[in-house]
Design brief:
The chain is built from seven helices and six strands. It is α/β, with parallel strands linked by helices and 240 residues long. It has a single domain, classed as Decaprenyl diphosphate synthase-like (Undecaprenyl pyrophosphate synthetase, 3-Layer(aba) Sandwich), CATH 3.40.1180. The structure holds ligand V0D.
């Protein structure tokens, strides 16, 4: 595999799909897939940081996921505290800063506290930003930004810069927009994930289920990304 010409995207966003299917294939309960998926989050976080990624955004829980069986939702809500109990020292060692996108106020107390602790414990890290989209939906996020802007602009028009900065991804500046969006496990949709920010993103789909996704698979996605010509609607010397 070609490694020398690899272009590492600054902002990588991942829809971590296929945890349930991974478990089903092994005759395991869905939560076993989520647990293994959490271990994949740890491996891919370190791999992305080592490769020089600036922002890694992970879609952990959508505003639609509340409709899953209550037992599954409550297991998922325990994952952030499991994650941080075992992983915060590694995050700090790797200089990774945790942030969250989405409405954390609706999460159970213990989940909110775990998330808040992780954000606080890593707040002085200056390396890669690890952004968890938690109870996040792109349309909701855009609506929140619109309402915020209406309140603060009193009839004045708004610029793209101000709109970008008012989305929850404003905290990722200057890397608000993902360069590459990866979705695992075969589906080829964005599913209400960063739809405004991914207007010009390269999209990469793989059949690999999230618990099986490895650092090598991440490099393969980066190689594919490197081979594409990004034009942002314009033309380049090569395509002209
Ligand atoms: C399950 C695969 C880490 C996707 C990965 C609450 C579904 C493992 C977190 C996490 C989940 C979230 C916030 C945070 C720290 C860690 C996580 C959820 C699900 C939903 F600050 N993995 N993970 N959160 N899964």
């Amino acid at each position: 595999m070609e490694l020398s010409n690899i272009k590492v995207p600054n902002h990588v966003a991942i829809i971590m799909d296929g945890n349930g299917r991974w478990a089903k294939k092994r005759f395991l309960p869905r939560i076993a897939g989520h647990k293994e998926g959490m271990n994949t989050v740890k491996k891919i976080t370190i791999a992305a940081s080592d490769l020089g990624v600036k922002v890694l955004t992970l879609y952990a829980f959508s505003t639609e996921n509340w409709s899953r069986p209550q037992s599954e939702v409550s297991y998922l809500m325990g994952l952030p505290s499991k994650f941080f109990d075992t992983f915060v020292p590694d995050l700090i060692k790797n200089n990774v800063k945790v942030v969250v996108l989405g409405d954390v106020s609706q999460l159970p107390d213990n989940t909110r506290i775990a998330v808040r602790n992780a954000i606080n414990d890593t707040s002085s890290c200056t390396g890669m930003i690890l952004a968890f989209a938690l109870n996040y939906g792109a349309r909701q996020d855009i609506l929140n930004a619109v309402n915020y802007l209406i309140e603060h602009h009193q009839g004045e028009s708004v610029s793209f810069q101000e709109l970008s900065q008012s989305l929850s991804t404003g905290i990722l500046a200057p890397y608000n927009d993902p360069d590459l969006v990866i979705r695992t496990s075969g589906e080829q949709r964005l599913s209400n994930f960063l739809s405004y920010e991914s207007a010009y993103s390269e999209l990469y789909f793989t059949d690999t289920k999230w618990p099986d996704f490895t650092a090598q698979d991440l490099i393969e996605a980066f190689n594919d990304y490197s081979s594409r010509q990004r034009r942002f609607g314009g033309i380049t010397e090569e395509t002209e």
